[in-house]
Amino acid sequence: DHIGPNEHKDFDDYLHCKSMLLKQCKVGIVNRDDEHFDRIVEGHTCALETYGFSEKADLRAEDAKLVGRKGYLGISYHVKGLLDFPVEIDIPGKFSIYNSLTAIAICRHFKVSEENIIKALKVAKVKGRIEMIKVSDEFTLMIDYAHNAMALESLLGTLKEYNPHRLVCLFGCGGNRSKLRRYEMGEVSGKLADFTIITSDNPRFEEPQAIIDDILIGMKKTDGEYIYFYAMNSNKKYSWYSYDTVEGTIQRLRTTSPEIIEDETTTPEETASTPVTGKNDDGCLLYTSPSPRDA
Fold first, then answer.
1. Helix or strand (DSSP H, E) at 259
2. Are 291 and 144 in contact (CB under 8 A)?
3. CB 144 within 8 A of CB 131
4. What are the φ/ψ torsions at residue 68 (nearest 5 degrees)?
5. Is the pLDDT reported for residue 23 higher than 60?
6. Closest C-alpha among 178, 179, 167 to residue 224
7. Contact 284, 92 (CB under 8 A)
8. Which of 61, 152, 47, 143 is nearest to 102 (CA)?
């Protein structure tokens, strides 16, 4: 996300800038498992503290386990090294361990007690980052900001590690943004999700159907099952339809004014309710929306 004409010209430049941080601080906290670790710490002038799964890490995670219950996904592990205590986080995925280890390392320098660290990590949540929304014990609903193929692939791959009975991904792509992103996200969801729901998500100044058509280009490269929602503009109102590729049916859902379609929260929630209600199959529904940074 940070390599391009407006940021870093290439990955080497990105790494170089990262390494410069370790020449401008007193203590540097670095992921020991990172494949570029040696390059990042080269020439550092600060005290180094590391974290990760590596035995060489100062703070390391051991005995990591996926935690899955009705309507809940999380992860647990034991911190060893500079500290020694168990941790459980209500955010699934291996990356949550790395994020929490970073937080633990920082808290240690500020003399935060182990008891408070454990309590805080158990309730820590980031709105829109694999945010679990309690709807039912029959399935787990999550919202995430994944707005490109790499993020979506990482996210769906993480969820598949929990062996859900059925993984459903609902997403749309923003207007006036890269078409390539749309093709790639459609292909990733088609390959990794059991069922994909394609909808409109902040079309800006593009036609919602044109964006959906781009997503379908990637989706059709896969054998994944999907349904998509599309809009027909008539007399300054949009009629929303769903096309079910499995049943081969078209259904009119509702008619709305354009300003509602441009509302990122209203449109996906309403369109998502139709295919999800009554599934009762102990699976996962993932809704991805653009992050504020991408807005």
1. helix 258-261
2. no
3. yes
4. -130, 125
5. yes
6. 167
7. no
8. 61
Distance of CA 87 to the CA centre of its chain: 22
Query: pLDDT by residue (tens digit) across 35-86?
Result: 999 999 999 999 999 999 999 999 999 999 999 888 889 999 999 999 999 9
Residue 227: beta bridge partners?
A: 197, 244
Name residue 203's amino acid. Answer: P
Q: Which two tokens stand for residue 22?
A: 């370790």
Amino acid making up residue 195: F
Give the separation between CA 104 and CA 83, rounded to whole angstroms: 9
- Both tokens of 118, joined, read 């454990």
Two structure tokens written together for 281: 């199959």
Whose structure tokens read 């979506």? 152
117-166: pLDDT as tens digits:
999 999 998 888 889 888 888 888 999 988 899 999 999 999 999 999 99
